[in-house]
Amino acid sequence: MSALISQVRVLAAQLGAYVGEVVTLKGWVHNVRHMGNLAFLVLRDRTGLVQCVLEGELAGRPIENESVVAVSGKVVAALKALGGVEVQATGLEVISAPSMPLPFEINKKEVKAGLESVLDHRVLSMRNPQIHAVFTIQSALAGGFREYLSSQNFTQIFTPKIVATGTEGGSNLFPIEYFEQRAYLAQSPQFYKQMMVGAGFERVFEIAPVYRAEEHNTSRHLNEYLSLDLEMGFIQSEEDLMDLETGLLRHMFAKVAAECAPELALLGVTVPEIAAIPRIPVAEAQAIIERKYGKLSPKGDLDPEGERLICQYVSEGGKPALVFMTRYPREIRPMYAMPAPENPNLTASFDLLFNGLEITTGGQRIHNAQMLVESIASRGLDPESFSTYLEVFRLGMPPHGGMAIGLERLTARLLGLSNIREATAFPRDRTRLTP
Amino acid sequence: MSALISQVRVLAAQLGAYVGEVVTLKGWVHNVRHMGNLAFLVLRDRTGLVQCVLEGELAGRPIENESVVAVSGKVVAALKALGGVEVQATGLEVISAPSMPLPFEINKKEVKAGLESVLDHRVLSMRNPQIHAVFTIQSALAGGFREYLSSQNFTQIFTPKIVATGTEGGSNLFPIEYFEQRAYLAQSPQFYKQMMVGAGFERVFEIAPVYRAEEHNTSRHLNEYLSLDLEMGFIQSEEDLMDLETGLLRHMFAKVAAECAPELALLGVTVPEIAAIPRIPVAEAQAIIERKYGKLSPKGDLDPEGERLICQYVSEGGKPALVFMTRYPREIRPMYAMPAPENPNLTASFDLLFNGLEITTGGQRIHNAQMLVESIASRGLDPESFSTYLEVFRLGMPPHGGMAIGLERLTARLLGLSNIREATAFPRDRTRLTP
Fold this sequence. Notes:
The first copy, chain A, is of the alpha+beta class and 435 residues long. Chain A is 29% helix and 28% strand. In chain A, the strands form four sheets. Chain A has an eight-stranded mixed beta sheet with strand order 6-10-11-18-17-16-13-12, sandwiched between helices. Chain A is elongated and about 85 Å long.
């Protein structure tokens, strides 16, 4: 191993504390400009960018962008440079040079490549600071989810993604060859999270992938996505769940604002402060959309344009909009949805819309075994095929409910990304299985 | 809704602060004893057990174990009772009564049922306080993993579990019907976590399931298990990784000790304090095992008995044993394992053994594209079929390495559980797909 690479490393963001000292930096070559006898090398590490000034022999050396290098030199204050410092390089070693032409440049503010190419060469595109920032923020959102729920006494659970049957009667499932048997990829941890409530954990959450074998290939759908799931026992009504989600999102957003300030600045995004989130029955929302915008909605639901319009309606002066839609009809909600106390044709369920897109589905669930059996049968499904799920309801089950937040959708809406694939490191869709 | 269930609830563990006050409790009936005019009902909620004393009409009411109930009454100090308090009940409502006979009792210290029955009726068995404690501790271990790595500047990543090819050339994969294509369940996030290091995140972790279509059905294998994965760029050698894991496990164990004291007490487990963990080359361990115990090992590796014996050797006086095995031969490690600097037939890799069982596999990886292509070819594999993986090595890749910790194995070893299924909420094995 060469001399520089074995030196202890200082990170770009730490350099302010090292002015006047000689340090070693390690990272990727973001950019090099040759100016006669000088060269300006911008080095990129996980904390940011720093300019290194090369002179004489060092300036003459050919260095390709995206090479992994170690640079040593003296840190000096430089008001005009990135972060107010630069490094007067006295040593430079190439650890790993690219051995293929770069498919596109990533050292400009925008990557000039189509989304397909960006996804085909995902490792390269994620090196672009703007694209990189998306996934740093996504990590903070997931961390905030866990932190807040832990503070509320929730237990993290891990439930199987290989399942014997679907949660909704069998459509949109990916089949697996499981030894001699046929199994499926889980569409949601719905049954298992309810079972864990009934197993006495009462409050549980799971951060895990879910699978939907949906044929359509849209900017808002993935066939594998991250579901932030929670389920909570001993609730009074779905109002408790909307209260919980309000506090949860407030914490997640505050964490992003606190920990990802440079990333937000790079993306030009301000995280919304969450006050109370309005709760509007879907029938009322439909009436508002028709009255205000002359738009009719499908029976009992909003279509994507309706979701955009109701967000526009609640948004004051173009501010970010969050709105709960409540009281969906039973016929468009799953068999486990609790009927509304005042009208058995409606449910104690809700969706949360964020800037025009549904990012959460939730609600109170039926906890009475007999009522659940009847609800299953009323859908034309056979209660017998749900026997392991039904057991928990036959063993004493508290009132409960929960929700699922789509992590990629939440990230995309927060950051104003138009395609959910931009908030997914390695998306899986109708046609994409690689990288 | 009845009167009591809509009351605000006090949890069992909070009652010490309510002596002299009237409260409402909600939970499951753990046990009822009728004693003439009195009945003693032990209520169980997510925080523990509390005794409620029923008199008169209340004492005469038939109540089945595992009913979900709300009990109101006055909290009184009672030195002999659980937690030093009991509740003199004045109200009792059954929210949900079991509608099937309990397959076994869960209110004794040990559940008197075989493992198959325990797993068949998982919701019921997890209500047993001892079994419950296992999963509370598992949640804390996962939380500790995330906390420690976040403190060390790691980014949480989410990579696909549906993949086009295996990481090791195609054996032990579960096939999926992915629309018109054939895909597989990921055996590990190995390639993706390396790619995320090379995408500039440098330090990444993932908590997610992995899948192994292994035919054997043993007490130490699952076909779907939770892998705590991490990968780290700019390391000097695999020693950095063993240092990191030492600090990581120290934090995870300390978190369990701090947050799960009641659960540990219930299980009679003391969490080991981790000092330095010895690092022994596998050849040396083989020699020790032969010299001390007269046992021969398979070529370049330890078998399960050898893993037990080397742990016995490093354990002083039966104390919990943690030991790193290092310098495994190349032929038994994957194609991406970095050769050892002093001997190209060995690798800069390691396993961590904990009380006789391998709980971690890790090591430095090859980061040079040409060397990796040669390593792939030397296994008789076609480098072309790894082209999306190889791209990151052709775009500038730092020295790096990582590891994977099996969460169920770690939990089982920490708690002295003999079968890994005891540390799995809903195990998937050769024959089990439900619940």
